[in-house]
Design brief:
The complex is a heterodimer of chains A (163) and B (108). By secondary structure, chain A is mostly helical. Chain A has one domain. Chain A has 8 helices and no strands. In chain A, helix 4 runs antiparallel to helix 8. Chain A is globular, with a radius of gyration of 19 Å. Chain A starts with a helix and ends with a helix. Chain B has 108 residues and is mainly α. In chain B, strands 4-3-5 form a 3-stranded antiparallel beta sheet. In chain B, strands 1-2 form a two-stranded antiparallel ribbon. Chain B is globular, with a radius of gyration of 21 Å. The chains are: A mainly alpha (163), B mainly alpha (108). Chains A and B meet through helix 2, helix 3 and helix 5 of A and helix 2, strand 1, helix 3 and strand 4 of B.
C-alpha cells in the first residue's frame, strides 16, 4: 500500500466515527445546559422524593423501563449514556442501588430497545438485506423480546435487592 | 408551471413524515432546545456535594439563577462545545471551556 493510500484510509476511518462523536457531544451538551442553569439539582430533588419511598428493586426495574424510550430516540449507546448518566448516578445513590447495578439496568434497557428499534441501523439494515418487512419482524420477535424483558427485569430486581 | 410540481412534491413529503424518524443528531438538537426552554421555567437549585461530587440527600436548596438572559442564550449556543470540551469548575459547579478542572462527565 502506498503512503498516500494509508493516510486516506486512516482519514476515511476517522470520518466514520464523526457521526457517533456528534451524537455524544450533543448529548453532553444537554447535560451541560441542565448543569449550568442549575436545574439538574431541582429535577434530582423532585425525583428524590419519588424514590425515597420506593424499594431498590423497583428503582432498578423503573430504570430499565424508563431508558427504553430514550434508546429509541438515541440509538448510540455512548450518546444515550452521556445524556442519562449525570442524572442516573445520583438517583441510584439516593435509592441505595449500587452504580454497577444501575448501569446494568440502563444497559439492559438500552440493548433490549435496540433489538426492535426502527432507529437502529443494524436492525433496519439487516431487515433490508434479508428482505423482511419491519412489521413482519416485529410480529415474529415480540414474544422473545417480552420474555427477555421479564428475565432482565427479574435479574436487575434481584441484583438491586441483594445489593 | 409551478403548480403541478408543487402538487407532485407534496404527497411524498407527507408520506415521509409518517415513516421517517429523525436521526439521533436532529433528535438531540430538538431535545437540547426543549431542555433549554424547560430550564427557563424550572427554578434553580443546588445540593451540597461530597468530596466525590455526589449530591448529599436532604441538602437541596433553592437558589437564585446566576445567569442573565444573554448568558442563557449563550448556554444554548455553546452547549455542544461545552459538551465535548467543557470542564466542570469544582468551585462554581459550572461547565465551560475557560475553567481549570476535571473533564465533564468524568466527575461522578
Amino acid at each position: 500500500m502506498k503512503e498516500k493510500e494509508i493516510v486516506r484510509l486512516i482519514a476515511a476511518g476517522a470520518a466514520d466515527m464523526m457521526g457517533p462523536a456528534m451524537v455524544m457531544l450533543l448529548a453532553g451538551g444537554v447535560s451541560v445546559i441542565m448543569t449550568n442553569t442549575q436545574t439538574l439539582d431541582t429535577i434530582l430533588h423532585a425525583m428524590e422524593q419519588l424514590i425515597t419511598g420506593a424499594s431498590a428493586g423497583a428503582f432498578a426495574v423503573v430504570t430499565l423501563l424508563a431508558n427504553i424510550p430514550l434508546a429509541f430516540l438515541i440509538p448510540s449507546s455512548s450518546g444515550h449514556a452521556a445524556l442519562a448518566m449525570p442524572m442516573l448516578s445520583p438517583l441510584a445513590d439516593f435509592a441505595g442501588v449500587s452504580r454497577p447495578t444501575a448501569i446494568t439496568a440502563w444497559s439492559l434497557g438500552h440493548g433490549l430497545a435496540l433489538l426492535a428499534s426502527p432507529t437502529n441501523v443494524v436492525v433496519v439494515g439487516g431487515l433490508a438485506i434479508a428482505k423482511v418487512g419491519y412489521d413482519q419482524y416485529l410480529r415474529f420477535v415480540w414474544p422473545l423480546l417480552a420474555g427477555l424483558m421479564v428475565v432482565a427485569a427479574a435479574a436487575v430486581a434481584i441484583a438491586a435487592t441483594l445489593g | 408551471m409551478s403548480e403541478p410540481t408543487a402538487s407532485a412534491a407534496a404527497p411524498p413529503e407527507s408520506r415521509k413524515w409518517t415513516f421517517e424518524f429523525p436521526s439521533a443528531v436532529t433528535t438531540l438538537v430538538i431535545v437540547s432546545i426543549l431542555v433549554w426552554l424547560a430550564a427557563l421555567v424550572i427554578p434553580a437549585g443546588q445540593y451540597a456535594r461530597d468530596a466525590d461530587g455526589s449530591p448529599i440527600p436532604g441538602t437541596y436548596q433553592r437558589i437564585e439563577s446566576p445567569l442573565t438572559s444573554g448568558q442563557r442564550v449563550e448556554q444554548l449556543i455553546l452547549a455542544p462545545v461545552n459538551g465535548i470540551y467543557g470542564l466542570l469548575s469544582p468551585v462554581r459547579g459550572f461547565v465551560d471551556t475557560g475553567t481549570v478542572g476535571r473533564l465533564f462527565g468524568w466527575r461522578r
